[in-house]
Amino acid sequence: MNFLKAEWKNLALFNYEVDAKILEKYVPSGTEIDLWNNKCYVSLVGFMFKNTKVLGLKVPFHIDFEEVNLRFYVKRFENGEWKRGVVFIKEIVPKKAITFIANTLYQENYETQKMRHEIIENENSNTFIYQWKKDENWNIIQLETEKNPTEIKVDSEAEFITEHYFGYTKIDLETTFEYEVQHPRWEQFEVLNYNVAIDFRKTYGNDFEFLQDTNPTSVFLAKGSDIKVKNKRKLETVFALEEAYH
């Protein structure tokens, strides 16, 4: 069953190469960090939710809204194949009901803040701006892109960033929730200029303060599409199974 249906539009992706050790304590049981060309990434992602339905229903005033999240990439081996997914450090939205539902039912790390966005269309480029307010200060991510999208190439860094179709949530040392996200392959827009003005420590904590002085390894904008989020399932992880047999 679908927990959520929506459109994800204009995904601004700022990708940072980091030391995998920083993420170890955030890795859900039963998964491991997913690398691309032996590089470990976290991504700062800003995008729009459009036409949102939760359990098939549109919630008034919660249909179109912004989200900004910080995430990293994991994989899980199951039934002879690797499932590739993401883990969220934090997800910021402007709607308290979304935060309540996500944190209560999925035990995600959502946070409600004032947010705004803007799209500026120019003759030769488009500019996308996402902002959120934290402790009376506005944080901003902004990028200017070419007008026309291009295909995301097979085996590219952009493919690695966008082609993760599961979400994993660390509940405790033994318990992990898994949910599937379905969407078609996306197109991307090449970025001409970008700006990041964020207080990383206040927004994401001491573990990610170092990103304040780190330049992204790559930046691009994904066009997005309709998406479906399936209901979560609780994983029986190896650690939990070993405990059960002792």
UniProtKB/TrEMBL annotation:
It comes from the Bacteria. InterPro entries: DUF2071. This is DUF2071 domain-containing protein. It comes from Flavobacterium frigidimaris.
